[in-house]
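Hi F.,

I've been meaning to write this up properly since the lab meeting, where we talked about keeping a consistent format for the predictions we share between groups. The idea is simple: the sequence comes first, exactly as it goes in, then the structure tokens exactly as they come out, then a line or two of notes. No screenshots and no reformatting. I'm using this chain as the first example so we have something concrete to point to.
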Amino acid sequence: MTTILRKSVLGIAGLAVAGGIAAGPLNHDTTTVDTRPVAVVQADKPAVDKGKLIPHGVQGEQSRIDLNDEQTANAKAIIAATKKAGMDERAAVVSIATSLQESKLENLGHLGDRNDHDSQGLFQQRPSSGWGTVEQITDPEYATMAFLKGLKQVDGWQDMPLTKAAQTVQVSAYPDHYAQWETQAADLVAQHWNS
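Output, unedited:
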């Protein structure tokens, strides 16, 4: 390389370095921080004691589904019926977990060939087994009250793992499947119990 060319290249490189130093680092963060005070929102209702929701810990792997507006409304209906029955948050967790397993919180009508006998509603209750009429068991409040009536008859249900309490009422062919919904059910109760 000729001397003139070398001096030109080195001079240009020096200017680039000097320009970078003067301008600051090339990878500097350009985000700004909002320093305005943030409003603190306080809930006007007390939080649910999460220790009451899952007193025995969860059993096995947990499942979770995204809920649409209808499913959320059904979870709220279960909570309202639980309160009306004079039962606590744990009863609501057991009820919602049961409905998540049985119907994914959907108020199912007769499913034709896919139906399990004559099971319908949130809890897949059967008119032929004495749960009520089709109109009754597809009413979320009635179906929940019927489930809770069965739960109240289970001695010591409060001290049982969720899946055992639910199975004692439901008498499912898959008794261990209720356990997988305990966390989501507890989250729904925590979110909506006081709303």
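Notes:
The longest helix spans residues 3-23.
The chain has a mean pLDDT of 80.

If this format works for you, I'll send the rest the same way.

G.
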